[in-house]
Amino acid sequence: MSSSNPHFCDLLTFNTLALPCQAKNFVMLSDLGQLQGLSTLLKKCQKPVHDNEPTKSTQDNLTNQANETNQPHQTNQPSLQTHWNILGGGSNLVLPKVLHQPVLHIQLKGIHLLDDQGLQNDQSVIKADKSTFYRIRVAAGENWHDWVTFALNKGWYGLENLALIPGSVGAAPVQNIGAYGVEVAQFIESVDVWNIETEQLLTLSAQDCDFAYRNSRFKRAHYSNEIIVAVNFALPKAWQPVLTYQDLKPLAQRYLNPSESITPHDVYQLVCEVRQRKLPNPALIPNAGSFFQNPVVPHEQAQALKAQHPNLVCYPQADGTTKLAAGWLIDTCGWKGKRLGSVGMHANQALVLVNPDGGHYDDVMTLADAVRHDVQTLFGVALQIEPICWMPDSSTHHTA
Ligand SMILES: Cc1cc2nc3c(=O)[nH]c(=O)nc-3n(C[C@H](O)[C@H](O)[C@H](O)COP(=O)(O)OP(=O)(O)OC[C@H]3O[C@@H](n4cnc5c(N)ncnc54)[C@H](O)[C@@H]3O)c2cc1C
């Protein structure tokens, strides 16, 4: 079904945490021809605010930004508050009970191998060399795992480590999805966006996307007027496996043995097996994957923590900082397998918040606060929520 007229929709089945959410204005985008009309509709829902007010989602996101840049997010420049929400597969979201602002569900489909000409509007983007890369344009509404499988079967390799990540292709650049030593940013040449404000289709280079660990320009409130309509991938023709993660060690050993060989299909297979064994299937136990980001702390702080907690799991980073395993911190605080009302932290994966018994937004946030409080108290480390939390906005009741 496709529609550019808003209608009421219960989003319970549109988010993998299975949170009930009444969307008052639900719109599907299945054709680029709808963009102009949608811009007009969405712009009706804007109102001026000041930059120091929360915009895109929660205060959390702003806290993230302030932490990243070490600068308070305080200016008095007026900007436009976002009064729409873009929905992909709903696997990285925490939804409130009611949403008045329009929800735009991305359903754009299509996978195209690009020739040297690429797209009309990408002159400023440096294109990957066709002799060494496959360049492929994938529409935002394609399912991520289906695309990974499709690429593998076509002989376009590189994405195997990212198999079975739920969600859509359009959302992949938003938090620069990553798994088993690979991040999607490594394979993105550019991203096609529709700017709701200027009503222009733009191609952003990977550099413009400002990719970082579980972050990008698209996660920042300032750019929430950009709808990702397609992602342009550059997949190297010469395949190089990434087998650094412990779970992939069996393949690493085979790879190092000159008498054996491994294929991208082997990596894909093992990644799928490991994920199926380790992670709760949202269709059976509702969840949004990792609920907290792995905190990155100064090396000295990690050393001090290690002295106090010799089993601390941490990964030194190239820039001198240290990434701590949030799952270990949560587990050590006693939250693994523990419930708070209808929600809880998974019994095998302390990092995954689960909603087996029909919990709501408030239940999830209460548990998240309790976990963060305990981690802060025991380790002095602030955990950041990884999924995007959409806020209800009763001040805008849009009826088109
Ligand atoms: C079981 C499980 C395992 C997971 N494992 C991983 C993992 O290994 N690594 C990892 O990185 N993530 C993981 N995730 C998180 C999630 O799968 C990814 O973040 C995924 O990219 C979200 O895609 P989505 O389409 O569901 O996005 P949604 O949840 O619908 O949206 C997420 C954000 O992206 C924005 N967005 C979505 N589509 C667009 C668009 N077209 N244009 C602009 N903005 C858009 C939304 O507004 C929202 O802010 C996991 C989740 C689950 C449930």
What are the main properties of this structure?
single chain; 400 residues; alpha+beta; Uridine Diphospho-n-acetylenolpyruvylglucosamine Reductase, domain 2; Uridine Diphospho-n-acetylenolpyruvylglucosamine Reductase, domain 3; 4 domains; 5-stranded antiparallel β-sheet; 9 helices; 24% strand; globular; disordered C terminus; binds flavin-adenine dinucleotide
Q: Would you give an account of this structure?
A:
This protein is an alpha+beta fold and 400 residues long. It has four domains: 7-106, 2-Layer Sandwich (Uridine Diphospho-n-acetylenolpyruvylglucosamine Reductase, domain 2), CATH 3.30.43; 111-236, Uridine Diphospho-n-acetylenolpyruvylglucosamine Reductase, domain 3; 246-278, no CATH class; 292-384, UDP-N-acetylenolpyruvoylglucosamine reductase, C-terminal domain (Uridine Diphospho-n-acetylenolpyruvylglucosamine Reductase, domain 1, Alpha-Beta Complex), CATH 3.90.78. 24% of the residues lie in helices and 24% in strands. It contains nine helices and 23 strands. It has helices spanning 35-43, 59-69, 144-154, 206-209, 249-256, 264-278, 299-308, 326-332, 361-379, and strands at residues 7-10, 22-29, 47-50, 78-81, 85-87, 93-94, 98-99, 103-106, 111-113, 133-139, 178-179, 182-183, 188-195, 200-205, 226-236, 287-290, 296-298, 314-316, 321-324, 339-340, 343-345, 352-354, 388-389. The strands form seven sheets. Strands 1, 2, 5, 7 and 8 form a five-stranded mixed sheet that branches. It has a five-stranded antiparallel sheet with strand order 9-10-15-13-14. Strands 16-22-21-20 form a four-stranded antiparallel sheet, covered by helices on one side. A hairpin with a 6-residue loop joins β21 (343-345) and β22. The protein starts with 6 loop residues before the first strand and ends in an 11-residue tail after the last strand. 42% of the residues are buried. The model is unreliable at 49-81 and 394-400 (pLDDT under 50). Flavin-adenine dinucleotide binds at residues 16, 85-93, 106, 140, 165-168, 170-172, 174-175, 177-179, 218, 227-228, 279, 282, 287-289, 388.
